[in-house]
Amino acid sequence: MTLLIQKPGILTTVQDLGRNNFRRLGINPTGVMDRAAVRLINILLGNDENEAVFEMHFPSPEIVFKSNTVAAIGGGDFTATLDDKPVENWRTFFAIKNSVLKFTNKSMGNRTYLAVKGGININKWLDSSSTNLAAGIGGFQGRKLESGDRIDCKERQKGVKSFITRRIAGSLIPIYRSFPTIRIIPGSEFENLSNKAREMLLTQDFAISYISNRMGFRLTGKPIRPTMQREILSSAVSFGTIQLLPDGQLIVLMADHQTTGGYPRIAHVITKDLPLLAQLGANDKVAFHLVETEKAEKLSLAFERELKFLRVGVKLGKD
Amino acid sequence: MSEPEIRIFPLGDSALTVEFGNTISLELNQKALALSDYFEHNPFSGFIESIPAYASTTIFYDLGNVRMSFAQFPTAFEAVKSLATEALNNFPASKPATPRTVEIPVNFDKGSALDLGQIAKECGLTQKKVIEIFTAATYRVFMLGFLPGFAYMGEVDKQIAVSRKETPRMSVPKGSVGIAGRQTGVYSLASPGGWQIIGRTEAEMFTPDAAEPSFLRPGDNVRFFMV
């Protein structure tokens, strides 16, 4: 009932959907970057959607299933193989004892997720299994996974004979692209932008800078000017907040963002599109499209309904 | 006295901010804290958490839950905005609770006070005088943020209110006590940072496994003393 990390990959961490309720103490939520992917594969496995998973980047880890395990991969497509045979994303698979999971080629996206049926056994810190890398706490010993790490699974699986694969309907799978149009709603300082500055935000393509990470994506484009004179007192920011820096460039706050910030918040990525943004990497591009809060809410609620149907479907199919 | 206009705006599609003003003041901060505490004690269906800041409170909520529970509003934002407005209108007139006073020992020796020489030079004061001014004041914890357990405190006396360093340090040692304008704060963890370092404390600002992981709370009064 153990997963053995045979090779660590560049950044493999244990995450769940994030650590809420402690932002007021400066404790940032962390959690997975692509929440849609993780919720989908957890639900597919019959898990609580907040069950801890591995978030993996490329080059990716090699993982040995030390006992029979039912698992699923979702998010970016890194061309997974199990004992050198292809494993598709978005479907459950059976890994027999001592089989080895590898990822051979990054064909789409920049983060992929492994969830196991029943979940992995992680001591929660402040009600969450997410790793807070900056503070060195949470997840697996507060750090990224290294060779030789062993992570226990909560459940023992029966033999392969009783296993039936299950997949996520194509219509539910996020459509990742390396140049998506991401929908945003206005932030509190949007109204202070000149028409010219708004046009700069909404009509140009931005590149994801190589210094982007789980804390934030730096975007490079023609500077948005004039920048704002208005000084802002530090206040809460959120996953998806787009801040305008003094040099006219943008930063989008991602999963490891700090709880508060003082740069103008000119826009926010809508929840529905955050996963598409979260899958981008250096040199990918993004364009923004402005929508109203009402539209953002509707899209989010529609996705929640689809997840609910998936949950019901998985439950009905169980026996 | 004219009341500053309260602004309520979305912080993405699952949170909103109630902004009481854009200045550092005891009065605005007390309002922000009171609203945050109100929702922590009287959560609505779908409420996740609230974060008080200098002069604002942000409320995070579960969009689906709010929509279902307050279906009479066109959006979840409108529903929570209405709940916040209602809370503000019915605010108890009671005085805020008496703040705790917390004392923090600080070492001002050369190895700890990385920028004390620079601060003294910039302010045209002796190092001793800078320390004297710094330790004479009582500071209020306005908010926590930046790092787990990092408290934004103020206000630093104008005579020693130096700006941030032009080039931030790659790593400020844990426990460093810094000044940034009228603000002071203690680096709860080693971190990159640009505040000018006046000393260092051994006191733990952040203890992950404690029932209260953060040593300081918004609203606390803090005094620094030399060791």
Could you describe the 3D structure shown?
- The complex is a heterodimer of chains A (319) and B (227).
- Chain A has 319 residues and is of the alpha+beta class.
- In chain A, 15% of the residues lie in helices and 28% in strands.
- Chain A is built from 4 helices and 20 strands.
- Chain A has helices at residues 35-44, 195-203, 274-278, 293-316, and strands spanning 2-7, 13-15, 53-56, 62-65, 69-77, 80-82, 85-87, 92-95, 99-103, 108-116, 150-152, 181-186, 206-208, 216-220, 235-236, 241-244, 250-253, 260-261, 265-269, 285-290.
- In chain A, the strands form 4 sheets. Chain A has a 7-stranded mixed barrel.
- Chain A is globular and about 65 Å long.
- Chain A starts with a strand and ends with a helix.
- The model of chain A has no long low-confidence stretch (mean pLDDT 95).
- With 227 residues, chain B is α+β, with helices and mostly antiparallel strands.
- Helices cover 24% and strands 28% of the residues of chain B.
- Chain B has 5 helices and 13 strands.
- Chain B has helices spanning 26-41, 63-69, 76-89, 116-123, 127-136; strands at 7-10, 15-19, 47-52, 56-61, 101-106, 139-144, 151-154, 169-172, 176-180, 183-186, 191-193, 196-200, 221-226.
- In chain B, the strands form 3 sheets. Chain B has a 7-stranded mixed β-sheet, covered by helices on one side.
- Chain B is elongated.
- The mean pLDDT of chain B is 94.
- Chains A and B meet through β15, β19 and α4 of A and β1, β2, β3, β4 and α2 of B.
